[in-house]
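Worked example 2:
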Amino acid sequence: MFFLLFSSFGFSDKKTINGHVPVGLYGNGFKSGSMRLGKDAIVFTKNGTTMCVGLLSQSYLENIKAKQIVLPIITYCQKSRRKKDQSKASLNAIMKHSLFCTDWELLEQLDAITGEHGTRVIIWNLRKTFNGQTEFDFDEDENDIRILVDIMNTPCKTQKTKVTLEQSEPQCKSSLRAYCSILYLEPRMEIILRGQKVITQLFSKSLSNIEKYTYKPRFLTIEKIPITFGKNAENMEQYGIMMYHKNRLIKAYERVGCQRKAGNTGVGVIGIIECNYLKTAHNKQDFDSSSEYSNTMKSLDRKVLHYWQKYCGNSSTNCPSRRILIQETHEEIHTQMRTRGQENNGLPVITSYYSLAPKRYVWFSEMQSPLNLNL
């Protein structure tokens, strides 16, 4: 039942659990996200009583000339490890159109999920650029997965242009490790990427000249929304609004009106806001275009301008002299969480790594128990 809900299209029964509100109506974007990463994905999951294997594959649909989406799903009894009778056709489809050719290989992948609960995702046939390279760079940093920047692959660009781009482009735009480190406004889980723990950070801790503002939407009867402004103490060329929705990052370094104009107004200013009243796009990478979103951006524009005039209006404060950088480690976050009644060993773990299968790059993502996060 869990896998059927997990793989359903255009439907969700998500609701608030223990005060934690889910990110969006249609989940976290697994189906659209996995199909953006590669053409084919297979999911292994356990829920304590049953084990399921599901194939989400564009190649499979093309091969069978399907006119609608078909998801082959195999269900096992977790205790006896026996398949249900209706799984035979799905088993044949998965063995023919996936990386796994036998029932034993599928069970081996389920056994790789430690504990009675957990999910393991394998994506292959990864997307490639115009020159035949995969969009992901696994070689530059053995502890990271990076996205190739198109402008850096253009032959006519000089090395000087590349260096300038690397300095001005936020790391979270091209580095999965950097992106995961700021993915949550208040980190609640531990993320392991290619065998190394991601050091999450509270973004406001790296800002200087911090000041708190509030925003009261006229179109909603809700409390004032807090906004944190500060200067980017590490790189003044990276600035804009960090827009979160129900604790998850939706838009990073989104520049408002005054920061888009010629000149240096708003340069280096970072804003942090959690916009739970806005609706996220289906891919969780943007907000729906609406009057509410437009009014929010206009208000942020005015507040950025006000902050800039206060802290950057004269040369004495143009460059902050006091830069206090506080590194937030997992150990510190764990201490905070234990004071809230959560144990360190209760954190879910997401593991991502890749391996070189025959003639294919394969990207893995694994989430181990407990699966009690309604993100």
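Confidence is low (pLDDT under 50) at residues 151-166, 315-375. The chain has eleven helices and 15 strands.
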